[in-house]
Write a structure and sequence with these properties.
Blueprint (H helix, E strand, L loop, with lengths): L1 H16 L3 H14 L4 H13 L3 H14 L4 H14 L2 H17 L3 H18 L2 H8 L9 H4 L16 H8 L2 H26 L8 H15 L2 H10 L5 H21 L6 H18 L5 H9 L11 H10 L4 H13 L11 H8 L3 H14 L4 H14 L2 H22 L4 H17 L6 H14 L4 H13 L3 H17 L4 H17 L3 H17 L4 H17 L3 H17 L4 H13 L6 H14 L4 H13 L3 H14 L9 H6 L2 H5 L6 H13 L3 H14 L4 H13 L3 H14 L4 H13 L3 H14 L4 H21 L2 H21 L4 H15 L8 H14 L5 H5 L5 H7 L9 H18 L7 H15 L9 H18 L4 H10 L5 H14 L4 H13 L3 H14 L4 H13 L3 H13 L7 H10 L9 H21 L4 H13 L3 H22 L2 H21 L2 H15 L13 H18 L3 H14 L5 H17 L3 H17 L4 H13 L3 H13 L2 H7 L4 H12 L3 H14 L4 H13 L3 H9 L10 H16 L16 H11 L4 H13 L2
Length: 1455
C-alpha cells in the first residue's frame, strides 16, 4: 500500500514537471484514495487543480494539507497562489501573516522579508489608510519583526536588483523615508477621522457648538494618536535634513497647539502643554527660524499694558522675516501713524529705516487697514489699529475695532489659558475714551461703568481719571469732575507725561470752576493755561478753545464790562482757529443779546457758521430754527432740526433719524434725545408729508426728553389718528388734556378720532363744548358738520328716518354758517352741503318736511343765479329752485332735492376751476349726481342733455386724474346702456388700476349679466367676493345668476347671506323676502311653521320699506307678509300707502301697467279688510277691481299674475263680502259670475269658487238651496274624483246636518284615494282632521286617536302631528301619555311654536293638579313655570287669541 502511494505521488510529481496537470491530478487523487491525509498528495492535487483552473478544488486540497501539516510552508504557499489568482485579498493577507510566522520559526529571513513585502504591497493595493500604516509599521523598530529582519544584509545601492528583498533592506537600514510615509498617512487618517466624527456628532441633539464638538473629538483622538512619537523620531533621526527637521518641529507646535485649544480651561495639563509650546516658540524665535505661527504666538502672547511695552526688536524681526504677511503691514503702518520708530539707526537697519521714514501717512494707514482685513484673528493688529483710530478721534471705529479685539483676547485667554489682563485693560480704556467723547453724553453711562472697573484694577491710571472727569462734568457734578481732573494732572506730572496732557487736565479743571459759578478763580486758572500754551508748541484748536473759555467765563459773569470784554476773547479764539464752532455761537449770542442795537443779521450768520462747522452746536441751531420759524421758512427749520439730531447722535447705528428713513422702529425706540425741540419739529414735518409712522417715532422720542410737553402729546395723538390707530390716539390726546386743560386742539382731535372710528355721537358730544367757547372756529364747525353728515348716513342705514333728517338739517345749518364765515373753505363746504342734500333726495316721504325745508332754503338763497349746468336744465336756476322750496310749498319731493344737489355740485365745480387738486373730484361728484337723476325723469325733455352733461363731467374728471379707478368706474356706469363697449373698457381700465376693488368687479358682473353672459358674470361676482367677503352686492349678483340658471334654493341662500352681512345691501331684503314668500313649498306646510319662516322676511321688509318709502311694490310685499302673520292693521296701512303711490303714478303717466297694479293692490286690501271684519270696505275694494278689469282683462299681457285670476279673486272676495254682510243673493251672483268668467284652464280657481258657491247656497238654509249646494259639490267630485276640497266640504255638510249617509259617502270617496295621492293633494292634513272630527263626534275615541297616531307614525318629525295628538290626550285628561309624547320630541332643530308652548303651559298646570307629577324635567323646552311658557306662546304669536286665553287660564290656576 505505501509503495503504491509513493508511486502515485512520484507519478504526480513527474506529470507536474511535464506540465501534464490532468495526469498529475488523477495520480494525486488515486494516492489520496488510499491515504486521504497524505500531505504531498494534497499539495500536488492542489497545484494541478489550480493550473487546471479548478480553483475551489485546489483551495480544498490546500486547506486539507494545511490542516494535516500546519507548520509546513508548501500548503500555505499554495493557498497564497490560490488567493492571489482568485483575488481574495483578506484571505491572502491571513495566509501571508501565517507564512511570516512560519519563516520566522524556520529562520528563513529572506522568505520572511519577501512575505512582509507582499503584505505591504497588498495593503497599498486594497487596504485602507489605517491598514497601510499598520503594514508599514511592521518595519519600524517597535515591530516584533524588526530584530529578525535586522539580520538582512545592508542594501547594495549599486545593485538594487541583486536581491528580492531590497525595499525591506533599505527600510531597515534607513527608516527616515518610511517614517515620513507613515507620518503623512497618519496625518491624513487622523484628519479624516476627526472630520467624520465631528460631522456625525453635529447631528445629535444638544451637541454643542461646532468648536466644542471638534475639541472633544480632538481630545479623544489624541489619546490614541502616535503622531507626536512619529514627529519625535523624525526630528531625532540622524539622517533628517534641517529643512525636514524644521518643518516637523512646526508640525509638533501645531499639533500641541491644537491640543492646547481643545483642553478645557480648568485642566492642569493645559499649563504643562502651554509651557512646552512656549519652549518651542522661544527656541524658534531665538534662532530666527521663519515659522510664522511661532513668531505670531510669541507676539500675541505678550501681556503688554501699552503699545510701547511690546518688544520692538521682536516686531522688527517679524517684519523682516515676513515682509509680505498682513500682520507685518499692520505693524509697519500703525507704527508710522503712531510715530513709533520701528527700525533703529544701525547700519543694518538703515535701508528699512529710510523706507519707513519716507512712507506717506495715508499710505501707511491704508496699508494697516488692508492688513487688518487679512488677519482677523490677531490681537496685536486690532490693538494697533485701535490706537491709530484713537489718535485720529474716529471714535465709532475705535469702539467697533476695540470690541472685536476684546472678543479675540477673551477667546485667546480661554484657548491658551494665558493671562492677558493688561491687553484687555488697554482695549477697555480705548473703548471708555471713545464712549466718553462720542456724542456726549449719549454713551456716558456705559463708559462710566467701564472706567470704574478699570480704576479698580489700576487706581493711578491718569487717562481713566481724565475721562471720568469729562463724564462727571457732563452730568453737572462739577466738584467731583474737578477732583478727577486734578488727580489726573498730578499723575501726569509725576510720570513726566507730555505737556499737552498736563495742560488738558489743568484746563478742564479750570473750566469746571466756570461751570460751577466760580468765575474769578476760573479766570485766573484759564489765564495761566493760556500762558503755558503760549510757551509750548500746541495745536491752534487747543489755544482757540482756551481763549473761548476765557471769554465765556467773562460772559457768564453777567456784568456789563465783562460781557463787553468777552467779545475780544471770542475774536481771539477765531484768530487762532477760524473753524472753532463754539466761538461763532458765542459771537452770535453776543450780537443778538448784547450788541446795541442788536445785530440779528450778524447773529444769524454766526449761528449758521457754527452749525455748519459743528452739528453739536444745539444752542446755535435752536436760535437759528426759531428765526426761520418766525419767517415761516419751514423747510429750513426741518434742515436745522435734522442736523441737530445728527449732531446729538440720533442718526448713528440706525437709531433715530436713519431709523425713520429705513423703518427700523425698534432701534429708534431705544434712543433718548437731548434736544426734544428738534425731534418735535421733525415729527410735525413728517406728519405734514403723510409719513405718519415716522412722525409717531419722532414725537415719541421728543416726549422721552420732556413728558410734560402737551403740544407734543397733541401732535402724537394726531399722528396716531391719521395712521389708523385710534386707541393710541385717544390715550395720547387724553394725556395732553391732563397736562393742559386749556388746549382746545386736543379736544378737537379727540372728536376727530371718534369721527374716524364711526362713533359720531361721541364726536358730536366732544365738539359741542368747543363750539360754546369758540363758536366761530372754522375747523370745529367743519368737523361738526361732517360728523352730523356721517351720523345721518349711519341712521339712514339703520332705518331711523327722523334722526336722519334732523342730522342732515343740522349739517346744512352749520355748513351755511361756514359759507359766510370762512370763504376760503367754500370748496369743502359746498361739497358737504351737496352731499347732505343728495342723501336727502333718496327719500320721497319726509317725516318732518318743515325741518328739511327750513334747512334747504338758505342753500337756495346762497346759490349763484345762473350756473353752467342751469343753462342746460332750466330747473337748476336759482330762481326756479327757490320757487320749489318757497314758503308756499306744502309738500316736499325728493326729486326737487336732487335738482338742488346737482346745483350745489355745479357751484362747487365753478369754485374748483383751475385747481388741479379738487376740480377732478368736483366733476366726478357732479357726474354721479346728474347720472343718478336720469332714471327719475322718464320721458323728461332734458334727459338727453343731462346724459351728455354727466358724460362730459366724468370725462373732464378723468383728464385731471386718469389714474383714479373710481372715475373709470363711473364712466362705465354712465355708458352702461348707451355704449356697452366703452363701458366694458372703462371697467377693465379701473380694474387694471385696482384689481381688488369689489365694487368694480360687481359692476362688471352686472354688465355681463345684463348682456346675457352668466359665466363671466359669475366669475366677476366671485372675484368681488374674494376681494371683500362682506360686500353684499356681489352676493346679490351671484344670487341673480343662480336665479337665471334656475338654481332657486342656492339663489335664496345667497340672498339670505347678503341680508346677514354687516354692510347694508340695497334691495337684498326685498329679494330675499320675495323668494321666501313665493316659495311653492311654503304653501304646503302648516300655518304655524309658515309663521316661523316669515319672521326674517318680516324684519327685512320692514327695514326695506323704511329706506324706500316710495316703493309701492315693496310695501305690497310687506303687506302680504304681514297678512300671513296676522298683522292686519299694519298690512292695511301699507296697502293704503301703496295705493296712494299708484294713484299718483297713474295720474302722471296713465300707464295701463300701473292701473293693473292698482287693481291687484285693491284685491289685496279687500282681502285684508275681510280678515279684520270690515266687510263693507272690502266689498268696495273688490268692486273697484271688477270695474277696472271687467271687459279688458285680456288687454294686459306683461304681468306675472293673470288678470283673469285677479278678476276671479275679486269676484270671489266680493262674494265673501256679500256673504258676510248677509247679502246672500249678491254673494250668489258674484260667485256665479266668477264661475262664468273664469276659464276652464283655471281649474283650481274654478274649484275654489264653486265650493264657495256651494257653501253660500248651504248657508241660505233653505232645503232647495242646500240641495243645490250639495249638487254643486257632487258635480265637482264627478268632474274631478280627487278634488279633496270638494269631498271634505261635502263631508262637513253631512256632519253638520247629521246626514250619516252623505258623510259616509264622502269619507268613502276620501278613503278611496291612495295615501301618497292624498298626501300630495292634502299636504296640510285637512282630510285627516275631518276623519278625526267624524270619529270624535260619533264618540269613537279610539278610532279618532288612531287617526292622529297614524299621522304621527307616518311623519315622526312633524311637530303639528305631535301637537294634535297631545292636544287630544289633554282633552281626554291623559296627562301622563301627553307628557311622554312631548318628552319623545325627536326634532333635530326645535322649532319655536306658540302652540307647543301653549300646550306645555296647560300640561304643566294639569301636572301640578295631578299630585305634582313632573315627567318633563328632562326636556330642556319644559324648563320654567307654566306662566313663563304661556307668556312665550303669547310672545311668539300675539295675534292668536287662544294664547291669551291660555295665559289667563294658567295665571288663574297658579294663584
Amino acid at each position: 500500500m505505501a509503495a503504491f502511494v509513493k508511486a502515485k505521488i512520484k507519478a504526480a510529481r513527474d506529470a507536474i514537471g511535464k506540465k501534464d496537470f490532468r495526469t498529475a491530478q488523477s495520480a494525486a487523487e488515486e494516492a489520496l484514495h488510499h491515504e486521504a491525509d497524505n500531505y504531498n498528495a494534497l499539495v500536488f492535487l492542489g497545484y494541478a487543480s489550480l493550473e487546471l483552473q479548478e480553483v475551489d478544488k485546489s483551495e480544498q486540497a490546500y486547506l486539507k494539507a494545511r490542516n494535516s501539516g500546519p507548520e509546513q510552508a508548501l500548503a500555505w504557499q499554495g493557498l497564497e497562489r490560490v488567493y492571489t489568482r482568485a483575488d481574495m485579498p483578506q484571505k491572502l493577507l491571513d495566509v501571508l501573516n501565517n507564512l511570516v510566522d512560519i519563516f520566522m520559526k524556520i529562520e528563513d529571513v529572506s522568505k520572511c522579508a519577501e512575505t512582509v513585502q507582499k503584505i505591504i504591497e497588498l495593503r497599498k493595493k486594497s487596504g485602507t489608510r489605517a491598514e497601510i500604516i499598520g503594514a508599514l509599521s511592521l518595519l519600524l523598530p517597535s515591530s516584533p519583526l524588526y530584530p529578525f529582519l535586522s539580520a538582512l544584509p545592508p542594501p547594495d545601492y549599486t545593485q538594487p536588483t541583486s536581491t528580492t528583498t531590497f525595499p525591506i533592506q533599505d527600510a531597515i537600514y534607513n527608516s527616515l523615508p518610511l517614517l515620513e510615509e507613515i507620518m503623512t498617512l497618519s496625518e491624513q487618517e487622523e484628519k479624516l477621522v476627526v472630520d467624520k466624527e465631528v460631522q456625525k456628532r453635529r447631528q445629535r441633539i444638544d451637541a454643542g457648538t461646532p468648536q466644542e464638538i471638534r475639541n472633544a473629538v480632538v481630545l479623544e483622538i489624541a489619546k490614541s494618536s502616535n503622531l507626536l512619537s512619529l514627529y519625535s523620531e523624525i526630528v531625532n533621526h540622524p539622517n533628517t535634513p534641517d529643512q525636514l527637521r524644521r518643518s516637523t518641529e512646526g508640525k509638533i507646535l501645531r499639533h500641541k497647539l491644537q491640543l492646547l485649544y481643545a483642553l478645557p480651561p480648568a485642566d492642569h495639563a493645559k499649563t504643562q502643554l502651554r509651557q512646552e509650546i512656549d519652549d518651542i516658540v522661544q527656541g524658534t524665535v531665538l534662532i530666527e527660524v521663519p515659522d510664522q505661527l511661532a513668531w505670531t504666538i510669541a507676539i500675541e502672547s505678550k501681556n503688554a499694558r501699552t503699545v510701547e511695552m511690546y518688544d520692538i526688536s521682536l516686531l522688527r524681526s517679524y517684519v523682516r522675516l515676513f515682509p509680505a504677511s498682513p500682520l507685518s503691514n499692520v505693524i509697519s503702518g500703525c507704527m508710522y501713524c503712531l510715530g513709533i520708530p520701528l527700525f533703529g539707526e544701525t547700519e543694518a537697519d538703515a535701508e528699512e529705516a529710510k523706507r519707513f521714514r519716507d512712507m506717506d501717512y495715508e499710505v501707511a494707514f491704508q496699508l494697516a487697514s488692508d492688513g487688518l482685513a487679512d488677519c482677523q484673528d490677531s490681537i496685536l493688529a486690532y490693538r494697533l489699529i485701535t490706537a491709530v483710530y484713537a489718535s485720529e478721534g474716529d471714535y465709532p471705529s475705535v469702539i467697533k475695532v476695540a470690541e472685536t479685539g476684546l472678543k479675540l483676547t477673551s477667546m485667546a485667554e480661554r484657548h491658551s489659558g494665558r493671562d492677558l489682563a493688561w491687553v484687555k485693560h488697554a482695549l477697555n480704556s480705548f473703548i471708555a475714551t471713545a464712549l466718553t467723547h462720542h456724542y456726549p453724553p449719549k454713551y456716558h453711562q456705559r463708559a462710566l461703568g467701564i472706567l470704574e472697573q478699570l480704576l479698580s484694577m489700576s487706581p493711578d491710571d491718569a487717562m481713566c481719571l481724565l475721562e471720568r472727569g469729562y463724564i462727571l462734568r457732563h452730568a453737572g457734578r462739577y466738584e467731583d469732575a474737578r477732583d478727577a481732573f486734578l488727580a489726573a494732572h498730578g499723575i501726569f506730572e509725576a510720570d513726566n507725561a507730555q505737556m499737552p496732557r498736563i495742560l488738558e487736565a489743568r484746563e478742564e479743571a479750570a473750566w469746571c470752576l466756570t461751570l460751577s459759578g466760580q468765575y474769578d478763580q476760573a479766570l485766573v486758572e484759564i489765564s495761566n493755561v493760556i500762558s503755558s500754551l503760549d510757551d509750548t508748541e500746541n495745536t491752534p484748536e487747543r489755544k482757540a478753545q482756551a481763549w473761548w473759555r476765557l471769554g465765556r467765563t467773562l460772559w457768564d459773569k453777567r456784568d456789563h464790562s465783562s460781557r463787553k470784554e468777552s467779545y475780544s476773547h471770542f475774536i481771539a479764539s477765531l484768530k487762532y482757529h477760524s473753524a472753532f464752532a463754539p466761538a461763532y455761537t458765542s459771537l452770535g449770542v453776543w450780537y443778538s443779546e448784547f450788541s446795541n442795537p442788536p445785530d440779528l443779521s450778524r447773529a444769524t450768520k454766526c449761528f449758521q457758521k457754527a452749525v455748519e462747522l459743528d452739528l453739536r452746536e444745539a444752542d446755535a441751531a435752536r436760535r437759528l430754527a426759531e428765526g426761520f420759524a418766525d419767517e415761516s421758512d419751514w423747510d429750513l427749520v426741518e434742515v436745522v432740526a435734522r442736523r441737530t439730531i445728527e449732531g446729538e447722535g440720533g442718526a448713528e447705528d440706525q437709531s433715530g433719524i436713519k431709523a425713520l428713513a429705513t423703518g427700523n422702529i425698534a432701534a429708534a425706540a431705544r434712543y433718548k434725545p437731548l434736544h426734544a425741540w428738534a425731534w418735535k419739529a421733525v415729527g410735525v414735518v413728517e406728519m405734514s408729508r403723510g409719513n405718519h409712522e415716522s412722525a409717531i417715532i419722532a414725537l415719541q422720542i421728543a416726549l422721552r426728553a420732556n413728558q410734560s410737553d402737551h403740544r407734543a402729546w397733541t401732535r402724537l395723538g394726531e399722528a396716531y389718528a391719521k395712521s389708523g390707530r385710534p386707541a393710541a390716539a385717544l390715550k395720547a390726546l387724553s394725556r395732553s388734556r391732563e397736562i393742559s386743560q386749556d388746549d382746545w386742539t386736543a379736544v378737537y382731535f379727540i372728536g376727530e378720532v371718534y369721527r374716524q372710528m364711526g362713533q359720531f355721537d361721541l364726536a358730536i358730544a366732544t365738539f359741542e363744548p368747543l363750539l360754546v367757547d369758540r363758536p366761530d372756529e372754522v375747523g370745529v364747525l367743519l368737523a361738526m358738520a361732517e360728523s352730523h353728515f356721517s351720523r345721518a348716513r349711519q341712521e339712514f342705514a339703520a332705518g331711523y328716518h327722523t334722526r336722519f333728517e334732523e342730522s342732515l338739517a343740522i349739517c346744512m345749518e352749520l355748513s351755511m354758517k361756514l359759507v359766510n364765515l370762512a370763504p376760503g373753505f367754500r370748496r369743502i363746504i359746498w361739497k358737504t352741503i351737496a352731499d347732505a342734500i343728495f342723501e336727502l333726495s333718496k327719500i320721497t316721504l319726509f317725516v318732518n318736511p318743515t325741518l328739511v325745508l327750513s334747512a334747504v332754503r338758505p342753500v337756495c338763497e346762497a346759490l349763484p343765479e345762473r350756473s353752467e349746468i342751469a343753462v342746460i336744465v332750466e330747473s337748476l336756476s336759482a330762481t326756479e329752485l327757490s320757487g320749489k322750496f318757497g314758503d308756499n310749498r306744502d309738500r316736499l319731493e325728493g326729486l326737487d332735492l336732487h335738482w338742488l344737489a346737482i346745483a350745489c355740485y355745479s357751484t362747487r365745480v365753478e369754485l374748483c376751476k383751475n385747481d388741479q387738486m379738487t376740480e377732478g373730484s368736483a366733476l366726478f361728484d357732479l357726474s354721479i349726481a346728474i347720472h343718478s337723476i336720469i332714471p327719475k325723469l322718464v320721458g323728461h325733455q332734458s334727459e338727453k342733455a343731462l346724459s351728455d352733461a354727466a358724460n362730459s363731467a366724468i370725462l373732464d374728471a378723468l383728464k385731471h386724474s386718469p389714474g383714479n379707478e373710481w372715475y373709470w368706474n363711473a364712466l362705465g356706469n354712465i355708458k352702461f346702456l348707451r355704449e356697452p363697449k366703452l363701458a366694458q373698457h372703462a371697467y377693465i381700465k379701473a380694474l387694471e388700476i385696482d384689481s381688488k376693488n369689489p365694487t368694480i368687479w360687481t359692476n362688471l358682473g352686472v354688465f355681463y349679466l345684463h348682456h346675457g353672459d352668466t359665466d363671466l358674470a359669475n366669475q366677476s361676482f366671485y372675484k368681488a367676493q374674494v376681494s371683500d367677503p362682506d360686500y353684499g352686492p356681489a352676493w346679490i349678483g351671484q344670487a341673480m345668476v343662480a336665479t337665471i340658471n334656475q338654481h332657486l334654493p342656492e339663489a335664496r341662500a345667497l340672498f339670505e347671506h347678503a341680508l346677514t352681512l354687516s354692510t347694508p345691501t340695497p334691495w337684498s331684503g326685498y329679494e330675499y323676502s320675495y323668494r321666501v314668500f313665493t316659495d311653492p313649498q311654503l304653501s304646503n306646510v302648516p300655518y304655524e311653521v309658515q309663521n316661523s319662516f316669515l319672521i326674517a322676511p318680516y324684519f327685512a321688509m320692514r327695514q326695506h320699506c323704511a329706506k324706500h318709502g316710495d316703493d309701492p311694490g315693496g310695501m305690497e310685499l310687506f303687506a302680504l307678509i304681514c297678512e300671513r302673520l296676522h298683522q292686519y292693521d299694519l298690512a292695511l296701512e301699507l296697502l293704503e300707502r301703496s295705493i296712494k303711490f299708484l294713484e299718483a303714478a297713474y295720474e302722471k303717466t296713465e300707464d295701463a301697467g300701473v292701473e293693473y297694479r292698482y287693481a291687484v293692490a285693491n284685491v289685496n286690501i279687500g282681502r285684508v279688510r275681510l280678515a279684520i271684519g270690515d266687510y263693507a270696505s272690502a266689498k268696495a275694494s273688490f268692486e273697484i277691481v271688477i270695474n277696472l278689469l271687467e271687459g279688458n282683462a285680456t288687454d294686459i299681457q306683461e304681468s306675472s299674475i293673470s288678470p283673469s285670476i285677479v278678476l276671479a279673486q275679486a269676484r270671489f272676495g266680493l262674494g265673501l263680502s256679500c256673504h258676510k254682510l248677509g247679502e246672500l243673493e249678491n254673494a250668489l251672483a258674484a260667485f256665479e259670475a266668477g264661475l262664468e268668467e273664469t276659464s276652464v284652464e283655471l281649474a283650481d280657481v274654478r274649484s275654489h269658487i264653486a265650493i264657495l258657491l256651494a257653501q253660500t247656497l248651504w248657508a241660505m238654509r233653505s232645503d232647495e238651496t242646500r240641495e243645490a249646494g250639495k249638487d254643486q259639490l257632487l258635480q265637482l267630485i264627478a268632474d274631478d274624483p280627487n278634488n279633496l276640497r270638494a269631498i271634505t266640504s261635502l263631508a262637513a255638510m253631512g256632519i253638520v246636518s247629521h246626514n250619516n249617509e252623505l258623510t259616509h259617502a264622502a269619507l268613502t270617496e276620501i278613503l278611496n284615494v291612495s295615501g301618497e295621492r292624498r298626501l300630495e293633494l292634502d299636504p296640510r292634513g285637512e282630510v285627516n282632521r275631518l276623519l278625526f272630527l267624524d270619529h270624535s263626534k260619533a264618540g269613537r275615541d279610539l278610532q279618532a286617536e288612531k287617526i292622529l297616531k297614524d299621522v304621527l307614525d307616518a311623519d315622526p318629525m312633524s311637530l303639528a302631528a305631535r301637537l294634535d295628538l297631545v292636544e287630544h290626550l289633554l282633552c281626554k285628561r291623559h296627562v301622563a301619555d301627553a307628557c311622554d309624547l312631548l318628552a319623545e320630541d325627536v326634532q333635530p332643530i326645535p322649532t319655536p311654536s306658540d302652540r307647543k308652548f301653549r300646550l306645555l303651559a296647560i300640561l304643566r298646570t294639569m301636572e301640578r293638579g295631578n299630585n305634582g307629577r313632573e315627567s318633563l324635567n328632562g326636556s330642556p323646552v319644559s324648563q320654567g313655570k307654566p306662566i313663563r311658557l304661556a307668556e312665550r306662546a303669547t310672545l311668539l304669536a300675539p295675534w292668536n287669541r287662544t294664547n291669551w286665553h291660555v295665559l289667563a287660564y294658567v295665571q288663574c290656576a297658579n294663584r
